[in-house]
Write a structure and sequence with these properties.
The protein has about 525 residues and is an alpha+beta fold. Helices cover about 45% and strands about 25% of the residues. The mean pLDDT is about 90. It binds adenosine-5'-triphosphate and magnesium ion.
Length: about 525
Protein backbone atom coordinates (compact mmCIF):
# COMPACT_ATOMS: atom_id res chain seq x y z
CA UNK A 1 0.00 0.00 0.00
CA UNK A 2 1.84 3.12 -1.16
CA UNK A 3 -0.33 5.28 1.10
CA UNK A 4 1.45 3.85 4.12
CA UNK A 5 4.99 4.73 3.00
CA UNK A 6 6.44 7.52 5.10
CA UNK A 7 8.39 10.22 3.31
CA UNK A 8 11.80 10.28 5.02
CA UNK A 9 13.01 13.47 6.65
CA UNK A 10 15.83 13.94 4.15
CA UNK A 11 13.28 14.04 1.31
CA UNK A 12 10.98 16.38 3.22
CA UNK A 13 13.93 18.75 3.66
CA UNK A 14 14.54 18.78 -0.06
CA UNK A 15 10.85 19.42 -0.73
CA UNK A 16 10.94 22.28 1.74
CA UNK A 17 13.62 23.97 -0.37
CA UNK A 18 11.45 23.53 -3.44
CA UNK A 19 8.37 25.21 -1.95
CA UNK A 20 10.45 27.99 -0.42
CA UNK A 21 11.87 28.72 -3.84
CA UNK A 22 8.45 28.57 -5.51
CA UNK A 23 7.00 31.10 -3.08
CA UNK A 24 9.97 33.40 -3.59
CA UNK A 25 10.01 33.22 -7.39
CA UNK A 26 6.24 33.64 -7.73
CA UNK A 27 6.08 36.28 -4.97
CA UNK A 28 3.19 34.54 -3.17
CA UNK A 29 2.67 34.03 0.58
CA UNK A 30 2.10 30.24 0.29
CA UNK A 31 3.53 27.32 -1.59
CA UNK A 32 2.39 23.95 -0.24
CA UNK A 33 2.72 20.22 -0.67
CA UNK A 34 -0.40 18.51 0.57
CA UNK A 35 -0.83 14.84 1.25
CA UNK A 36 -4.10 12.98 1.37
CA UNK A 37 -4.74 11.07 4.56
CA UNK A 38 -8.38 10.11 4.25
CA UNK A 39 -10.64 11.36 5.72
CA UNK A 40 -8.28 14.33 6.04
CA UNK A 41 -5.80 16.24 4.01
CA UNK A 42 -2.50 17.21 5.61
CA UNK A 43 -0.10 20.05 5.00
CA UNK A 44 3.07 18.05 4.49
CA UNK A 45 5.40 20.93 3.59
CA UNK A 46 4.65 24.64 3.78
CA UNK A 47 6.90 27.40 2.45
CA UNK A 48 8.77 29.54 4.94
CA UNK A 49 7.45 32.74 3.46
CA UNK A 50 6.04 36.02 4.75
CA UNK A 51 2.34 35.91 5.62
CA UNK A 52 1.90 32.17 5.08
CA UNK A 53 -1.08 31.05 7.21
CA UNK A 54 -0.48 27.28 6.69
CA UNK A 55 1.69 25.23 8.97
CA UNK A 56 3.20 21.82 8.32
CA UNK A 57 1.32 18.91 9.88
CA UNK A 58 -1.95 20.81 9.99
CA UNK A 59 -4.89 18.79 8.74
CA UNK A 60 -8.27 19.71 7.38
CA UNK A 61 -11.21 17.42 6.71
CA UNK A 62 -11.91 16.45 3.11
CA UNK A 63 -15.34 16.98 1.54
CA UNK A 64 -15.32 20.65 2.45
CA UNK A 65 -14.67 22.09 -0.98
CA UNK A 66 -10.96 22.85 -0.65
CA UNK A 67 -9.05 23.78 -3.79
CA UNK A 68 -6.69 20.82 -3.30
CA UNK A 69 -9.51 18.39 -2.79
CA UNK A 70 -10.77 19.21 -6.27
CA UNK A 71 -7.34 18.78 -7.79
CA UNK A 72 -7.02 15.34 -6.19
CA UNK A 73 -10.47 14.29 -7.27
CA UNK A 74 -10.21 15.45 -10.87
CA UNK A 75 -6.46 14.75 -11.10
CA UNK A 76 -6.29 17.88 -13.20
CA UNK A 77 -4.46 21.16 -12.76
CA UNK A 78 -6.59 23.86 -11.20
CA UNK A 79 -6.22 27.58 -11.67
CA UNK A 80 -8.46 30.00 -9.72
CA UNK A 81 -7.25 33.59 -10.40
CA UNK A 82 -9.94 35.25 -8.25
CA UNK A 83 -12.16 33.14 -6.01
CA UNK A 84 -14.22 36.08 -4.85
CA UNK A 85 -15.34 36.73 -8.40
CA UNK A 86 -15.96 33.03 -9.08
CA UNK A 87 -19.31 31.56 -8.07
CA UNK A 88 -17.80 28.09 -7.85
CA UNK A 89 -15.14 29.18 -5.38
CA UNK A 90 -16.37 32.17 -3.44
CA UNK A 91 -17.39 30.01 -0.46
CA UNK A 92 -14.38 27.69 -0.18
CA UNK A 93 -12.68 27.34 3.25
CA UNK A 94 -9.32 28.78 2.12
CA UNK A 95 -10.96 32.18 1.63
CA UNK A 96 -11.32 32.38 5.42
CA UNK A 97 -7.53 32.40 5.56
CA UNK A 98 -7.49 35.18 3.02
CA UNK A 99 -6.36 33.05 0.08
CA UNK A 100 -8.34 34.17 -2.93
CA UNK A 101 -6.22 32.78 -5.77
CA UNK A 102 -4.86 29.30 -6.34
CA UNK A 103 -2.80 27.24 -8.77
CA UNK A 104 -2.26 23.51 -8.02
CA UNK A 105 -1.30 20.24 -9.63
CA UNK A 106 -1.94 16.67 -8.53
CA UNK A 107 0.95 14.46 -7.37
CA UNK A 108 0.69 10.71 -7.93
CA UNK A 109 2.48 7.59 -6.78
CA UNK A 110 4.06 5.62 -9.64
CA UNK A 111 1.14 3.17 -9.64
CA UNK A 112 -1.36 5.99 -10.23
CA UNK A 113 -2.62 6.35 -6.63
CA UNK A 114 -3.02 9.98 -5.64
CA UNK A 115 -0.40 11.24 -3.20
CA UNK A 116 -1.60 14.85 -2.86
CA UNK A 117 -0.99 18.22 -4.47
CA UNK A 118 1.59 20.90 -4.96
CA UNK A 119 0.11 24.39 -5.05
CA UNK A 120 0.63 28.10 -4.61
CA UNK A 121 -1.88 30.54 -3.07
CA UNK A 122 -2.11 34.29 -2.95
CA UNK A 123 -4.05 36.90 -0.97
CA UNK A 124 -4.70 38.93 -4.09
CA UNK A 125 -5.96 38.22 -7.53
CA UNK A 126 -3.33 36.29 -9.49
CA UNK A 127 -3.60 34.81 -12.98
CA UNK A 128 -0.27 32.92 -12.69
CA UNK A 129 1.59 33.03 -16.00
CA UNK A 130 2.15 30.03 -18.21
CA UNK A 131 5.83 29.96 -17.17
CA UNK A 132 4.76 29.64 -13.53
CA UNK A 133 2.54 26.71 -14.43
CA UNK A 134 5.50 25.04 -16.19
CA UNK A 135 7.72 25.68 -13.21
CA UNK A 136 5.15 24.18 -10.86
CA UNK A 137 4.79 21.21 -13.16
CA UNK A 138 8.59 20.65 -13.20
CA UNK A 139 8.62 20.71 -9.41
CA UNK A 140 5.78 18.22 -9.37
CA UNK A 141 7.83 15.91 -11.65
CA UNK A 142 10.73 16.07 -9.20
CA UNK A 143 8.43 15.06 -6.34
CA UNK A 144 7.00 12.19 -8.37
CA UNK A 145 10.52 10.94 -9.18
CA UNK A 146 11.23 10.93 -5.44
CA UNK A 147 8.05 8.96 -4.80
CA UNK A 148 9.10 6.51 -7.47
CA UNK A 149 12.36 5.87 -5.69
CA UNK A 150 10.70 5.64 -2.28
CA UNK A 151 8.35 3.00 -3.55
CA UNK A 152 11.18 0.97 -5.06
CA UNK A 153 13.14 1.17 -1.80
CA UNK A 154 10.18 0.20 0.27
CA UNK A 155 9.63 -2.77 -2.05
CA UNK A 156 13.19 -3.91 -1.37
CA UNK A 157 12.74 -3.34 2.32
CA UNK A 158 9.52 -5.31 2.36
CA UNK A 159 11.24 -8.07 0.42
CA UNK A 160 14.15 -8.24 2.85
CA UNK A 161 11.77 -8.12 5.80
CA UNK A 162 9.84 -10.98 4.25
CA UNK A 163 13.07 -12.91 3.80
CA UNK A 164 13.99 -12.33 7.44
CA UNK A 165 10.48 -13.37 8.43
CA UNK A 166 10.92 -16.67 6.54
CA UNK A 167 14.24 -17.22 8.31
CA UNK A 168 12.71 -16.40 11.68
CA UNK A 169 9.91 -18.87 11.11
CA UNK A 170 12.19 -21.58 9.78
CA UNK A 171 13.72 -21.84 13.26
CA UNK A 172 17.06 -23.01 11.90
CA UNK A 173 19.08 -20.39 13.68
CA UNK A 174 18.17 -18.14 16.58
CA UNK A 175 16.88 -14.73 15.55
CA UNK A 176 15.71 -11.82 17.62
CA UNK A 177 14.63 -8.25 17.05
CA UNK A 178 15.53 -5.62 19.58
CA UNK A 179 14.90 -1.96 20.18
CA UNK A 180 18.06 0.01 19.68
CA UNK A 181 17.18 2.56 22.37
CA UNK A 182 16.05 0.26 25.19
CA UNK A 183 17.97 -2.93 24.21
CA UNK A 184 14.78 -4.85 24.94
CA UNK A 185 14.27 -7.95 22.80
CA UNK A 186 10.85 -7.43 21.28
CA UNK A 187 10.60 -10.51 19.11
CA UNK A 188 12.44 -13.81 18.93
CA UNK A 189 11.95 -17.18 17.33
CA UNK A 190 11.80 -20.47 19.22
CA UNK A 191 15.37 -21.33 18.23
CA UNK A 192 16.69 -18.28 20.06
CA UNK A 193 14.48 -18.86 23.09
CA UNK A 194 15.78 -22.44 23.25
CA UNK A 195 19.41 -21.28 23.08
CA UNK A 196 19.00 -18.94 26.04
CA UNK A 197 16.38 -20.96 27.94
CA UNK A 198 13.69 -18.27 28.05
CA UNK A 199 10.02 -18.60 27.07
CA UNK A 200 7.41 -16.57 25.20
CA UNK A 201 6.04 -15.07 28.39
CA UNK A 202 9.45 -13.51 29.15
CA UNK A 203 9.34 -12.00 25.68
CA UNK A 204 5.79 -10.68 26.03
CA UNK A 205 6.54 -9.05 29.38
CA UNK A 206 9.58 -7.31 27.83
CA UNK A 207 11.71 -9.14 30.36
CA UNK A 208 14.55 -9.92 27.97
CA UNK A 209 17.15 -7.25 27.52
CA UNK A 210 20.23 -8.36 25.63
CA UNK A 211 22.54 -6.19 27.71
CA UNK A 212 21.34 -7.87 30.92
CA UNK A 213 21.77 -11.27 29.26
CA UNK A 214 25.40 -10.56 28.33
CA UNK A 215 28.13 -11.43 30.86
CA UNK A 216 30.04 -8.28 31.93
CA UNK A 217 33.32 -9.36 30.30
CA UNK A 218 31.57 -9.53 26.90
CA UNK A 219 29.28 -6.55 27.46
CA UNK A 220 32.21 -4.20 27.75
CA UNK A 221 33.38 -5.02 24.20
CA UNK A 222 29.80 -4.90 22.89
CA UNK A 223 29.19 -1.42 24.24
CA UNK A 224 32.62 0.01 23.61
CA UNK A 225 33.48 -1.42 20.19
CA UNK A 226 30.46 -2.96 18.53
CA UNK A 227 27.50 -0.64 19.19
CA UNK A 228 29.25 2.43 17.73
CA UNK A 229 30.08 0.45 14.57
CA UNK A 230 26.47 -0.73 14.32
CA UNK A 231 25.20 2.83 14.71
CA UNK A 232 27.62 4.08 12.09
CA UNK A 233 27.47 1.37 9.45
CA UNK A 234 24.19 -0.37 10.17
CA UNK A 235 25.74 -3.83 10.48
CA UNK A 236 28.36 -5.91 12.29
CA UNK A 237 30.69 -8.57 10.97
CA UNK A 238 29.93 -11.98 12.54
CA UNK A 239 31.54 -12.35 15.94
CA UNK A 240 31.57 -14.72 18.88
CA UNK A 241 30.30 -13.94 22.35
CA UNK A 242 28.42 -15.50 25.24
CA UNK A 243 24.94 -15.04 26.71
CA UNK A 244 23.66 -15.88 30.12
CA UNK A 245 20.92 -18.48 29.92
CA UNK A 246 17.90 -17.84 32.14
CA UNK A 247 19.35 -20.36 34.63
CA UNK A 248 22.56 -18.32 34.88
CA UNK A 249 24.77 -20.72 32.91
CA UNK A 250 26.64 -19.40 29.87
CA UNK A 251 26.14 -20.30 26.23
CA UNK A 252 28.76 -19.53 23.55
CA UNK A 253 27.26 -18.12 20.34
CA UNK A 254 28.18 -16.73 16.96
CA UNK A 255 26.31 -13.51 16.10
CA UNK A 256 25.47 -11.41 13.08
CA UNK A 257 23.75 -8.07 13.67
CA UNK A 258 22.11 -5.49 11.42
CA UNK A 259 19.72 -2.56 11.68
CA UNK A 260 16.63 -2.69 9.55
CA UNK A 261 17.17 0.68 7.93
CA UNK A 262 19.32 3.76 8.24
CA UNK A 263 18.83 5.18 11.69
CA UNK A 264 16.11 2.58 12.28
CA UNK A 265 14.86 1.94 15.77
CA UNK A 266 15.12 -1.83 15.57
CA UNK A 267 17.96 -4.23 15.02
CA UNK A 268 17.92 -7.84 14.01
CA UNK A 269 20.40 -10.39 15.35
CA UNK A 270 21.18 -13.89 14.08
CA UNK A 271 22.44 -16.25 16.72
CA UNK A 272 24.15 -19.61 16.27
CA UNK A 273 24.67 -21.88 19.26
CA UNK A 274 28.36 -22.84 19.43
CA UNK A 275 28.09 -25.21 22.41
CA UNK A 276 28.55 -28.33 20.29
CA UNK A 277 31.43 -26.83 18.37
CA UNK A 278 33.19 -25.65 21.52
CA UNK A 279 32.82 -29.13 23.01
CA UNK A 280 34.21 -30.65 19.82
CA UNK A 281 37.13 -28.21 19.94
CA UNK A 282 37.84 -29.11 23.56
CA UNK A 283 37.65 -32.79 22.59
CA UNK A 284 40.07 -32.21 19.74
CA UNK A 285 42.45 -30.38 22.07
CA UNK A 286 42.22 -33.22 24.58
CA UNK A 287 42.91 -35.90 21.99
CA UNK A 288 45.73 -33.79 20.57
CA UNK A 289 47.19 -33.62 24.10
CA UNK A 290 46.86 -37.38 24.56
CA UNK A 291 48.43 -37.93 21.15
CA UNK A 292 51.37 -35.74 22.13
CA UNK A 293 51.78 -37.56 25.41
CA UNK A 294 51.81 -40.93 23.64
CA UNK A 295 54.27 -39.61 21.07
CA UNK A 296 56.61 -38.35 23.74
CA UNK A 297 56.40 -41.62 25.68
CA UNK A 298 57.12 -43.52 22.48
CA UNK A 299 60.01 -41.24 21.63
CA UNK A 300 61.45 -41.92 25.06
CA UNK A 301 61.14 -45.68 24.63
CA UNK A 302 62.77 -45.36 21.24
CA UNK A 303 65.69 -43.46 22.74
CA UNK A 304 66.14 -45.92 25.54
CA UNK A 305 66.08 -48.92 23.17
CA UNK A 306 68.43 -47.27 20.69
CA UNK A 307 70.77 -46.33 23.48
CA UNK A 308 70.43 -49.88 24.80
CA UNK A 309 71.65 -51.08 21.42
CA UNK A 310 74.61 -48.77 21.81
CA UNK A 311 75.54 -49.71 25.37
CA UNK A 312 78.36 -52.04 24.38
CA UNK A 313 80.03 -49.60 22.06
CA UNK A 314 79.40 -46.64 24.40
CA UNK A 315 81.00 -48.42 27.33
CA UNK A 316 83.88 -49.20 25.04
CA UNK A 317 84.09 -45.49 24.18
CA UNK A 318 84.02 -44.59 27.84
CA UNK A 319 86.73 -47.06 28.69
CA UNK A 320 89.21 -45.14 26.59
CA UNK A 321 89.36 -41.86 28.53
CA UNK A 322 88.99 -43.72 31.83
CA UNK A 323 91.85 -46.08 30.93
CA UNK A 324 93.92 -43.10 29.81
CA UNK A 325 93.21 -41.44 33.17
CA UNK A 326 94.52 -44.49 35.00
CA UNK A 327 97.65 -44.66 32.83
CA UNK A 328 98.38 -40.95 33.27
CA UNK A 329 97.80 -41.21 36.99
CA UNK A 330 100.47 -43.95 37.29
CA UNK A 331 102.82 -41.94 35.09
CA UNK A 332 102.26 -38.83 37.20
CA UNK A 333 102.94 -40.76 40.39
CA UNK A 334 106.15 -42.14 38.88
CA UNK A 335 107.32 -38.62 37.92
CA UNK A 336 106.65 -37.46 41.49
CA UNK A 337 108.49 -40.44 43.02
CA UNK A 338 111.60 -39.84 40.90
CA UNK A 339 114.70 -38.30 42.53
CA UNK A 340 114.54 -35.41 42.10
CA UNK A 341 110.76 -35.43 41.31
CA UNK A 342 110.05 -34.22 37.77
CA UNK A 343 107.32 -31.74 38.54
CA UNK A 344 106.87 -30.51 34.96
CA UNK A 345 106.17 -34.04 33.61
CA UNK A 346 103.86 -34.70 36.58
CA UNK A 347 101.93 -31.49 35.80
CA UNK A 348 101.52 -32.54 32.14
CA UNK A 349 100.26 -35.97 33.26
CA UNK A 350 97.67 -34.37 35.53
CA UNK A 351 96.57 -32.05 32.72
CA UNK A 352 95.95 -35.10 30.51
CA UNK A 353 93.98 -36.71 33.36
CA UNK A 354 91.93 -33.56 33.65
CA UNK A 355 91.15 -33.54 29.91
CA UNK A 356 90.24 -37.24 29.74
CA UNK A 357 88.12 -37.07 32.87
CA UNK A 358 86.20 -34.09 31.47
CA UNK A 359 85.65 -35.96 28.20
CA UNK A 360 84.26 -38.99 30.04
CA UNK A 361 82.06 -36.86 32.22
CA UNK A 362 80.70 -34.89 29.22
CA UNK A 363 79.84 -38.12 27.53
CA UNK A 364 78.09 -39.41 30.64
CA UNK A 365 75.99 -36.30 30.91
CA UNK A 366 74.95 -36.50 27.24
CA UNK A 367 73.92 -40.08 27.79
CA UNK A 368 71.97 -39.12 30.89
CA UNK A 369 70.14 -36.40 28.90
CA UNK A 370 69.17 -38.91 26.27
CA UNK A 371 67.82 -41.33 28.87
CA UNK A 372 65.84 -38.66 30.68
CA UNK A 373 62.20 -38.06 29.78
CA UNK A 374 62.19 -34.32 30.12
CA UNK A 375 59.45 -32.09 28.67
CA UNK A 376 60.14 -30.45 25.33
CA UNK A 377 62.21 -27.32 25.66
CA UNK A 378 62.75 -24.92 22.83
CA UNK A 379 65.94 -22.97 23.04
CA UNK A 380 68.79 -21.98 20.77
CA UNK A 381 70.62 -25.14 19.70
CA UNK A 382 73.96 -25.15 17.87
CA UNK A 383 73.19 -27.97 15.48
CA UNK A 384 76.83 -28.81 14.66
CA UNK A 385 77.65 -29.22 18.32
CA UNK A 386 74.62 -31.43 18.92
CA UNK A 387 75.59 -33.58 15.93
CA UNK A 388 79.19 -33.94 17.12
CA UNK A 389 77.94 -35.28 20.45
CA UNK A 390 75.80 -37.89 18.69
CA UNK A 391 78.76 -38.90 16.50
CA UNK A 392 80.85 -39.39 19.64
CA UNK A 393 78.18 -41.65 21.11
CA UNK A 394 77.86 -43.73 17.95
CA UNK A 395 81.57 -43.83 17.12
CA UNK A 396 82.00 -47.29 18.64
CA UNK A 397 79.09 -48.69 16.63
CA UNK A 398 80.33 -47.05 13.45
CA UNK A 399 83.89 -48.31 13.84
CA UNK A 400 82.71 -51.78 14.73
CA UNK A 401 80.81 -52.01 11.41
CA UNK A 402 83.69 -50.63 9.40
CA UNK A 403 81.90 -47.42 8.46
CA UNK A 404 83.86 -44.30 7.59
CA UNK A 405 82.18 -41.11 8.78
CA UNK A 406 82.64 -37.89 6.90
CA UNK A 407 81.44 -34.64 8.41
CA UNK A 408 80.81 -31.57 6.27
CA UNK A 409 79.54 -29.14 8.86
CA UNK A 410 79.01 -25.59 7.64
CA UNK A 411 80.63 -22.95 9.78
CA UNK A 412 78.82 -19.99 11.32
CA UNK A 413 75.41 -21.60 11.26
CA UNK A 414 72.80 -19.66 13.22
CA UNK A 415 71.33 -21.54 16.21
CA UNK A 416 68.14 -23.43 15.47
CA UNK A 417 65.07 -23.20 17.69
CA UNK A 418 64.50 -26.52 19.35
CA UNK A 419 64.97 -29.17 21.96
CA UNK A 420 68.57 -30.42 21.86
CA UNK A 421 67.83 -33.94 23.11
CA UNK A 422 64.99 -34.47 20.64
CA UNK A 423 67.04 -33.24 17.70
CA UNK A 424 69.84 -35.55 18.79
CA UNK A 425 67.38 -38.41 18.94
CA UNK A 426 66.37 -37.74 15.33
CA UNK A 427 70.04 -37.73 14.30
CA UNK A 428 70.68 -40.89 16.29
CA UNK A 429 67.85 -42.72 14.50
CA UNK A 430 69.02 -41.63 11.07
CA UNK A 431 72.63 -42.62 11.79
CA UNK A 432 71.63 -45.98 13.25
CA UNK A 433 69.40 -46.70 10.23
CA UNK A 434 72.29 -45.85 7.91
CA UNK A 435 74.78 -48.02 9.80
CA UNK A 436 72.30 -50.91 9.93
CA UNK A 437 71.55 -50.58 6.19
CA UNK A 438 75.24 -50.58 5.24
CA UNK A 439 76.03 -53.51 7.55
CA UNK A 440 73.45 -55.58 5.68
CA UNK A 441 75.61 -55.68 2.52
CA UNK A 442 79.12 -56.83 2.20
CA UNK A 443 80.35 -55.26 -0.99
CA UNK A 444 81.52 -51.71 -1.53
CA UNK A 445 82.81 -49.08 0.87
CA UNK A 446 80.68 -48.11 3.81
CA UNK A 447 80.47 -44.37 3.94
CA UNK A 448 78.33 -42.15 6.08
CA UNK A 449 78.31 -38.45 5.20
CA UNK A 450 76.72 -35.87 7.43
CA UNK A 451 76.27 -32.37 6.08
CA UNK A 452 74.86 -29.23 7.56
CA UNK A 453 74.09 -26.08 5.60
CA UNK A 454 72.13 -22.89 5.93
CA UNK A 455 68.82 -23.25 4.10
CA UNK A 456 67.03 -20.38 2.41
CA UNK A 457 64.30 -18.87 4.55
CA UNK A 458 65.78 -18.99 8.04
CA UNK A 459 66.38 -22.70 8.48
CA UNK A 460 69.27 -25.11 8.81
CA UNK A 461 69.40 -28.20 6.62
CA UNK A 462 70.91 -31.49 7.76
CA UNK A 463 71.67 -34.29 5.29
CA UNK A 464 72.50 -37.89 6.22
CA UNK A 465 73.83 -39.88 3.26
CA UNK A 466 74.88 -43.53 3.29
CA UNK A 467 76.29 -45.95 0.74
CA UNK A 468 73.96 -48.82 1.62
CA UNK A 469 71.45 -50.61 -0.61
CA UNK A 470 68.79 -47.87 -0.38
CA UNK A 471 65.20 -48.30 0.74
CA UNK A 472 63.26 -51.07 -1.04
CA UNK A 473 60.89 -49.21 -3.41
CA UNK A 474 57.81 -50.95 -2.02
CA UNK A 475 58.73 -49.54 1.39
CA UNK A 476 59.70 -46.07 0.25
CA UNK A 477 56.10 -44.80 0.30
CA UNK A 478 55.29 -46.12 3.77
CA UNK A 479 58.66 -45.41 5.34
CA UNK A 480 57.43 -42.79 7.78
CA UNK A 481 54.37 -44.74 8.84
CA UNK A 482 54.49 -46.45 12.23
CA UNK A 483 55.59 -50.10 12.35
CA UNK A 484 57.00 -50.10 8.84
CA UNK A 485 60.14 -52.18 9.18
CA UNK A 486 62.18 -54.70 7.22
CA UNK A 487 64.26 -55.68 10.23
CA UNK A 488 63.58 -58.73 12.36
CA UNK A 489 64.38 -56.79 15.53
CA UNK A 490 63.10 -53.40 14.35
CA UNK A 491 60.05 -51.68 15.77
CA UNK A 492 59.51 -49.58 12.66
CA UNK A 493 59.06 -46.50 14.84
CA UNK A 494 62.40 -44.75 14.26
CA UNK A 495 61.45 -42.69 11.23
CA UNK A 496 57.90 -42.03 12.46
CA UNK A 497 59.37 -40.50 15.58
CA UNK A 498 62.03 -38.62 13.64
CA UNK A 499 59.40 -37.00 11.46
CA UNK A 500 57.12 -36.06 14.34
CA UNK A 501 60.09 -34.50 16.16
CA UNK A 502 61.12 -32.48 13.12
CA UNK A 503 57.55 -31.41 12.38
CA UNK A 504 57.07 -30.33 15.99
CA UNK A 505 60.06 -28.07 15.36
CA UNK A 506 58.34 -26.57 12.31
CA UNK A 507 60.62 -28.36 9.88
CA UNK A 508 60.36 -31.21 7.36
CA UNK A 509 62.04 -34.60 6.99
CA UNK A 510 62.20 -36.40 3.64
CA UNK A 511 63.90 -39.28 1.93
CA UNK A 512 65.30 -37.15 -0.86
CA UNK A 513 67.43 -39.63 -2.82
CA UNK A 514 67.10 -43.35 -2.89
CA UNK A 515 69.44 -45.15 -5.24
CA UNK A 516 71.54 -48.29 -5.42
CA UNK A 517 74.40 -46.24 -3.97
CA UNK A 518 72.44 -45.50 -0.87
CA UNK A 519 69.76 -43.46 0.77
CA UNK A 520 69.81 -39.76 1.57
CA UNK A 521 67.61 -38.37 4.36
CA UNK A 522 67.33 -34.66 4.78
CA UNK A 523 65.66 -32.46 7.36
CA UNK A 524 65.31 -28.76 8.03
CA UNK A 525 64.79 -26.94 11.31
CA UNK A 526 63.89 -23.23 11.53
CA UNK A 527 66.49 -21.00 13.11
CA UNK A 528 65.93 -19.13 16.35
CA UNK A 529 65.33 -15.82 14.56
CA UNK A 530 62.88 -17.28 12.00
N1 LIG B 1 69.29 -45.51 5.46
C1 LIG B 1 68.45 -46.47 5.09
N2 LIG B 1 68.74 -47.30 4.04
C2 LIG B 1 67.89 -48.25 3.69
N3 LIG B 1 66.70 -48.48 4.28
C3 LIG B 1 66.34 -47.71 5.32
C4 LIG B 1 67.19 -46.66 5.77
N4 LIG B 1 66.55 -46.07 6.80
C5 LIG B 1 65.40 -46.72 6.99
N5 LIG B 1 65.25 -47.69 6.10
C6 LIG B 1 64.11 -48.61 5.96
O1 LIG B 1 63.02 -48.02 6.60
C7 LIG B 1 62.45 -48.89 7.58
C8 LIG B 1 61.89 -48.09 8.70
O2 LIG B 1 62.90 -47.44 9.44
P1 LIG B 1 62.61 -47.07 10.95
O3 LIG B 1 63.79 -46.40 11.50
O4 LIG B 1 61.33 -46.34 11.00
O5 LIG B 1 62.36 -48.45 11.63
P2 LIG B 1 63.41 -49.58 11.94
O6 LIG B 1 64.77 -49.05 11.81
O7 LIG B 1 63.04 -50.76 11.10
O8 LIG B 1 63.07 -49.91 13.44
P3 LIG B 1 63.37 -48.99 14.74
O9 LIG B 1 62.03 -48.63 15.25
O10 LIG B 1 64.11 -49.82 15.65
O11 LIG B 1 64.12 -47.79 14.25
C9 LIG B 1 63.59 -49.77 7.97
O12 LIG B 1 63.13 -51.01 8.45
C10 LIG B 1 64.33 -49.94 6.64
O13 LIG B 1 63.73 -50.92 5.83
MG1 LIG C 1 65.41 -47.25 12.77
Amino acid sequence: MPHAIEVPLSTVDKWQDIVNLLAEIMCVPSALIMRTKAPNIEVLVSSHSEGNPYEAAETAPLDTGLYCETVMETRQPLLVPDALADVDWNANPDIKLGMISYMGLPISWPDGEVFGTICVLDRKKNAYSNQFLRLLSMCRDILQADLNMLMALSGQLAESQARIRRLVDADIIGIFLWEVDTQVIVEANDAFLRIVGYDREDLRSRGMRWTAMTPPDWLEVDLRDRLPVLKRSGRLQPFEKEYFRKDGSRVPVMMGVARFEDGGKEGVAFVLDLTERKLAEADARESERRYRETQSALAHVNRVTTMGQLTASISHELKQPIGACAMNASAGLRWLAAQPPNLEEARLAFERINKDARQASDMMSHIRDLFKNAPLQKEGVQINEAIREVITLTRGEVVQHGVAVQMQLAEDLPPVKGDRVQLQQAMLNLIMNAVEAMSAVDDGPRELTIRTAADAGHAVMVTVRDSGPGVPPEHAVRLFEPFCTTKSSGMGMGLTICRSIIQAHGGTLELCENEARGAVFQFTVPTLDA
